[in-house]
């Protein structure tokens, strides 16, 4: 449980006549966890992939992670506090090894003192602060966490808080909220935060401390205290019985981590990764502000009976990040068939002749284990379904095949290996290296090839884990062109280990391609890149703190079918020329440029109402102009409002991938004819 970016502020120059009596109680280390601390050191040093020695270097990293977990927005501690607490920088390893975590509670109790003092003061003075804001003063708020420094004085920190509160109030005002509603909403929000503080116990603090140590090793190793086991399963429960989204807490906000393929949120396409949920409502009932609310409470509000509607108010990850929007989602259970492989045909015209390119979209690597255990010979699996779809597409006369793994976050490793085997004979598809250095190759044992023709694999930044194994294998074998964006880069394997109290999810192995290159951190690089609206700076393994590095081991033996790099000098210029003239790609590139510009623009937020209104209108105007330029080029009716803009229905990426495959076929045929001619001459 992290108390991040609590949006509380004091009016600059405001003086409180008295400080409310302290409401907090200092927390003490739970001695029943002394054994857990020692056990944690033994397990991390013994079974983590890196076989680390928990020493002062790791302690220094852990200290920074712990402080950041408590006060990431630098809203409570002063620089003098951090300077004082730095005496403990090299004590975290000793605390864990000795089973005495007093240092963690010393730091936490000081943080709690600072936090509660501000919260309690704010309760009495928030209404008059809101009423006293002048929104025509030309001042700004620094919104770049990397540029934020610890305040050196109370006055400096007070001013920072004042600006944060003013920004929140102005945002609500621009979203149409009355002053009374702004006051009541923020009062309720900060009361929730006090409640959240009161609910924190010694075990919660221990978990934050333990995870500061694990975070210093890698972002996927985590300790879960016994009470956290339910929270650990929240993602799966929500994914399968709610809106189909994986959520986590970040800076007092409920953030969307990813969407479950085939789920209601992914199907509707309005919600996106990194969006922040600020309010939740049920159909016909008022919205409830959820900033500062516990994750499990937010999840309970989002979940509900099937076929009912939940309304989410979110601040989008793209755009000015200051204007919220409401999204209605009908709750559904994500069924296996919703995630099943699907097919379609893209028709491309060349020289007056139409060619068919088959597209198989695979949202995840799945297998119906229950049906398999029950002896059902017709069980569903991604490999079996894909094989059937390929056979159907071949009967329809396709010239090439696209395997679409965009947004496929992984799944069954066994299925990934088997699916890759549909396109190559028996052989390795991935290598797994454990913490002892032992390398184990895994692959497909079936020599049969279901499809041997030209093919491409479409990937994006959300293609992860098993998707990267398949894409990497087909790229190494020269069986497919990899098209799209750099993949996620999740190339590590975690296992769950029981402890005396709680569980440890620990990284124990790494994936490597048959070429010896790791998929970790770097992911799979496309042969031909497509423009992407997904920001690699905020999404992907490389965007996480302290990821394990990319590296390389010895390659294994495997055949290469086509020398794909040799074709790229011909394929890439044609691809670039088509994109330059395609109205959809032109619009996408312009949108990417606008997003990059906004990221820089909104690192500093204006607190002047007229400026914010002008920025919003400029953004709407730019978006409408961009869409109408695209529509005009396509001969479509022009729009008069941004509210009328709908997602582009045509899959621009699949169409361009089809064009590239036809270029590949033509280039290959020409090369074969030249080779035949040269042979005949000899």
Automatic annotation (TrEMBL):
GO terms for molecular function: endopeptidase activity; serine-type peptidase activity. NCBIfam families: prc (TIGR00225). It comes from the Bacteria. One of its GO terms (biological process) is signal transduction. GO terms for cellular component: outer membrane-bounded periplasmic space. PANTHER family: CARBOXYL-TERMINAL-PROCESSING PEPTIDASE 3, CHLOROPLASTIC, TAIL-SPECIFIC PROTEASE. Residues 233-317 form the PDZ domain. Pfam families: DUF3340, PDZ, Peptidase_S41, TSP_NTD. Residues 1-23 form the signal peptide. SUPFAM superfamilies: ClpP/crotonase, PDZ domain-like. Keywords: Hydrolase, Protease, Serine protease, Signal. Belongs to the peptidase S41A family. CDD domains: cpPDZ_CPP-like, Peptidase_S41_CPP. It comes from Marinomonas polaris DSM 16579. This is Carboxyl-terminal processing protease.
């Amino acid at each position: 449980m992290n108390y991040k970016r609590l949006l509380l502020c004091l009016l600059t120059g405001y003086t409180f006549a008295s400080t409310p009596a302290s409401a907090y109680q200092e927390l003490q280390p739970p001695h029943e966890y002394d054994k857990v601390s020692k056990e944690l050191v033994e397990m991390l040093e013994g079974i983590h992939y890196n076989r680390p020695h928990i020493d002062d270097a790791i302690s220094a990293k852990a200290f920074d992670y712990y402080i950041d977990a408590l006060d990431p927005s630098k809203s409570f501690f002063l620089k003098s506090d951090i300077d004082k607490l730095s005496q403990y920088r090299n004590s975290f390893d000793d605390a864990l090894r000795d089973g005495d975590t007093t240092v963690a509670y010393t730091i936490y109790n000081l943080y709690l003192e600072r936090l509660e003092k501000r919260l309690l003061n704010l309760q009495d003075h928030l209404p008059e602060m809101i009423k006293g804001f002048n929104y025509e003063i030309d001042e700004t708020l620094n919104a770049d966490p990397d540029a934020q420094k610890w305040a050196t004085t109370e006055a400096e920190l007070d001013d920072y808080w004042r600006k944060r509160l003013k920004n929140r109030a102005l945002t609500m005002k621009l979203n149409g909220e009355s002053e009374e509603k702004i006051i009541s909403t923020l009062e309720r929000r900060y009361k929730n935060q006090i409640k959240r503080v009161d609910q924190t116990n010694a075990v919660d603090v221990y978990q934050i401390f333990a995870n500061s140590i694990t975070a210093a090793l890698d972002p996927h190793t985590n300790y879960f205290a016994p009470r956290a086991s339910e929270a650990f399963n929240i993602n799966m429960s929500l994914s399968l019985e709610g809106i189909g989204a994986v959520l986590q807490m970040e800076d007092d906000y409920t953030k969307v981590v990813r969407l479950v393929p085939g789920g209601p949120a992914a199907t509707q396409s309005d919600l996106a990764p990194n969006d922040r949920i600020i309010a939740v409502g049920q159909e016909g009932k008022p919205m409830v502000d959820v900033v500062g609310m516990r994750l499990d409470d937010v999840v309970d509000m989002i979940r509900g009976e099937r076929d009912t509607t939940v309304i989410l108010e979110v601040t989008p990850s793209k755009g000015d990040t200051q204007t919220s929007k409401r999204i209605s989602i009908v709750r559904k259970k994500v069924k296996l068939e919703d995630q099943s492989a699907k097919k379609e045909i893209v028709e491309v015209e060349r020289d007056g002749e139409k060619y068919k390119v088959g597209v198989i979209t695979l949202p995840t690597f799945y297998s119906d284990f229950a049906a398999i255990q029950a002896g059902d010979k017709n069980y569903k699996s991604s490999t079996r379904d894909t094989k059937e779809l390929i056979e159907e597409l071949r009967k329809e006369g396709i010239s090439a095949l696209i395997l679409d793994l965009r947004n496929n976050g992984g799944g069954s490793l066994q299925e990934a290996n088997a699916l890759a085997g549909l396109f190559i004979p028996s052989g390795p598809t991935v290598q797994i290296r454990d913490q002892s250095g032992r390398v184990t190759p895994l692959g497909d044992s079936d020599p049969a090839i279901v499809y041997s023709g030209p093919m491409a694999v479409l990937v994006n930044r959300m293609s992860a884990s098993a998707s990267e194994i398949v894409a990497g294998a087909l790229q190494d074998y020269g069986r497919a062109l990899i098209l799209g964006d750099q993949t996620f880069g999740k190339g590590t394997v975690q296992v769950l280990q029981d402890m005396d109290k709680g569980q440890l999810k620990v990284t124990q192995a790494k994936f490597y391609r048959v070429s010896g290159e790791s998929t970790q951190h770097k992911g799979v690089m496309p042969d031909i890149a497509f423009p992407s609206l997904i920001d690699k700076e905020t999404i992907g393994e490389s965007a996480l703190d302290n990821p394990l590095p990319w590296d390389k081991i010895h390659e294994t033996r495997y055949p290469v079918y086509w020398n794909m790099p040799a074709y790229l000098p011909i394929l890439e210029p044609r691809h670039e020329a088509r994109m330059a003239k395609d109205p959809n790609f032109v619009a996408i590139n312009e949108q990417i440029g606008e997003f990059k510009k906004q990221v820089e623009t909104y690192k500093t937020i204006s607190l002047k109402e007229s400026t914010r209104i002008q920025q919003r209108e400029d953004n709407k105007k730019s978006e409408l102009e961009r869409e109408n330029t695209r529509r005009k080029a396509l001969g479509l009716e022009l729009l008069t409002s941004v509210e009328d803009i709908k997602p582009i229905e045509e899959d621009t990426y699949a169409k361009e991938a089809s064009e590239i495959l036809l270029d590949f076929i033509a280039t290959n045929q020409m090369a074969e004819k030249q080779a035949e001619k040269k042979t005949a001459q000899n």
